Amino acid sequence: MRRLVIALAILLALPVAGCGAPHPGPSLTVGTSGDTETTLLANIYSAALRYYGTDARVSTSPDPLVALDAGEVTVVPGFTGRLLERFSPGSAARSAEQVYRAMVGALPEGVAAGDYAVAAEDKSALAVTAATADSWGSRELSALVDHCGAVTVGSVTGGAAPATVGSCALPSVRQYGSAAAMFDALQAGFITAAWTSTANTSVPTGAVVLVDRKPTLLQAQNVVALYSRNEIDTMQLRAINELAGVLDTASLVDMLHQVETGADAHAVAENWLAANPLGR
Questions:
Q1: How far is the CA of 52 from the CAs of 25, 46, 247, in angstroms?
Q2: Would you tell me which of 58, 134, 155, 245 could form a disulfide with 195, CB atoms 3.0–4.6 Å apart?
Q3: Do residue 109 and residue 46 come from a single domain?
Q4: Of 103, 122, 93, 71, which Cα lies nearest the Cα of 255?
Q5: Is 242:278 a contact under the CB 8 Å cutoff?
């Protein structure tokens, strides 16, 4: 009789356990190469995963994509255009949707992509002085193409400097040792335009970053996360995708500035997520 009572007690307990809150998924590691931007992104994504109950941590490696392939990390944040160039060099895709689709189509077996952040990017951009923009009568990138023959361009040594903008084949780029030196040259009139990016924190207040409107002239670079397809559960994917719907470029720039001036990336990411909760 006692055994029957115990068995009934166990059976009655099972539905109760099944109706409880879902157990957190297994712990995940988010990879970064260690530079400021990808480290911040890794902390933002790990914060989002923790928000929905996953124990997530950040791991640094020389090549996070190699670590992803080896199973050493489960999630690797990045930018759509750079990832596309990694997996399919020389792609002609330019717009955000084109680049994302091409990137997804080029991913290796076992790797998938979350939603890309439509409002968060760090794509190549050209900055000019306000006087130049006024003389062109436009603050759009297409105006530079219209004045292609009269343009001189500078970039920071080692920085991205596309050779063409739409139909404009740019002249040889003048190299500068720092962003400050390049923007000084811009203000002094030694160059017409300076290569930067849409999330660059070093653009001075007086410079005008030309807007790349449709049709897109420069390749999109939207925030996205790659992940090991068989290692992510539904709630973890929800965290990744909801983050993509909340993050924007202005927030990214603000957080980058905080980290570059000494703040801890983990704390910055947690504070931002607390002010911008997911699921709303």
A1: 9, 10, 17
A2: 155
A3: yes
A4: 122
A5: yes
Query: Average pLDDT, whole number, for the chain?
Result: 92
Q: 154: closest CA among 133, 137, 121, 176?
A: 176
What is the tens place of the pLDDT at every residue in 148-191?
A: 999 999 999 999 999 999 999 999 999 999 999 999 999 999 99
Residues 80 and 140 in one domain: no
In this structure, the strands spanning 193-197 and 164-165 are unpaired
H helix or E strand, kind and range, residue 132: helix 130-136
For 240, the domain range is 28-121+220-275
Same domain, 117 and 250: yes
For residue 7, the model assigns a pLDDT of 45
Read off the tokens for 250: 């202005």
Nearest alpha-carbon partner for 166 in 209, 222, 124:
124
In percent, how much of the chain has pLDDT > 90? 90
Q: What letter represents residue 202's amino acid? A: S
CA angle 16, 20, 23 (to 5 degrees): 130
Average pLDDT over residues 22-39: 84
Question: Does one domain contain both 133 and 145?
Answer: yes
Residue 199 structure tokens: 């999330």
For position 27, what pLDDT does the model report? Answer: 86
- Domain boundary among the residues 161, 185, 209 is at 209
Q: Where does 157-217 have alpha helices with state H? A: 179-188
Q: How many domains does the chain have?
A: 2
H or E element that contains 99:
helix 96-106
Give the Cα separation of 226 and 237 in Å (integer).
Answer: 11
Instruction: Using DSSP, state whether 256 is helix, strand or coil.
Output: helix
Question: 80 and 43: one domain?
Answer: yes
Same domain, 144 and 117: no
134 and 198 share one domain = yes
